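Subject: for your reference before the review

Hello V.,

The reviewers asked for a structural picture of the protein, and I figured it would be easier to keep everything in one thread rather than splitting it across files. Below is the amino acid sequence we used in the manuscript, unchanged from the supplementary table.
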Amino acid sequence: MLFSRGKVTRQAHVDIPEGTYEEEYAREGFFGRYAHLYRSHAPVGWTRIEGDLRPRALRAMDAPPPVGGDYLASRVPLLRNRDTVISTARISQAMPYHFRNADGDEVLFVHAGEGRIETDFGPLDYEKGDYLVIPRGTVYRFLPAGQTDLLVIETAGEVGLPDKGILGQHALFDPAVIRVPSPAAPAAEEREEWELRVKRCGRITSVFYLWNPCDVVGWKGNLTVWQLNIRDIRPVLSERYHLPPTAHVTFMANNVVICTFLPRPLETGDPGALKVPFYHSNIDYDEVIFYHDGEFFSRDGIEPGWVTFHPQGIHHGPQQKAVAASRDKTRTEEKAVMIDTRHPLEVAPPALDVEWKEYWKSWQKRAE
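And here is what came back from the structure prediction:
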């Protein structure tokens, strides 16, 4: 069933009636049932907010401890729930131990730096813009060439690729661009023993060996470490219609969706088409965006390495400066990672130390 009442547009996100603001009210993170509401005022035009429910912005890459710190100790949690933990990490020296996460899969996004990651399946050279997908239980360690800054997404469920549907299996990126490691003998190191740290139920256990734990000489199967650089992702485009975030899904896990926003042409094929994200009400998902690089035209005052958090239950959408700035733009240059979570996220204490507490005021409507 589909209903239409009052002043509306025939095509969502195009030719919005003058004097109205379109809001997308949708279930299942834009996958489910929906309604488009045409309001007389922007739903983010609040005068004040009392309580904990508000948009937040975090200077995420300011959270890790000083350069040279221990890899695990440098993993600073920002947001968490029962399905995922979103952290940052910083490392500049080769890890003196190997690590295995028995609590979940990991998606490591390289915000800055380059080097090598040694894994059970073999080594991979990494660089800025890489996703490194580490299945639960895989042994690895970092050997950075210099300072490496990471966005760390831990998921209780297995990380996989989304169903591409009618777009076909080569949409967004050809699966052939995913790189997997080949076994290789690790560099010789003189040691009396090797340490493997295992995280289980959030606690660390150290297991010791007389040899390098990454001693695999061959492997076969379809469960392994993945490496994907964002330059190999080709965004789905629509010249005449602003696509929802679901068009940019890169990875999925149980109750967690990871999207990649990349430079692309804006909607210039129809003068009435929206060029900025539409106002929407978070119903079933919390929304987190990590800003990696470029010009973040839908958010004012945000810098690379920051995180925004828009929780369920409160509207969000473009700021008025962004709406005005978008009129003459023909493309977006931003690079960002979005994490949507079905269950509400809690703000971890370290995040409070790097929060821009005035962020919610960037939409504030002041009395005239």
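For the response letter, the relevant points are probably these. The chain has two domains: 23-58+233-363, 66-230. The helical segments are 320-326, 349-352.

Happy to draft the paragraph if you're swamped.

O.
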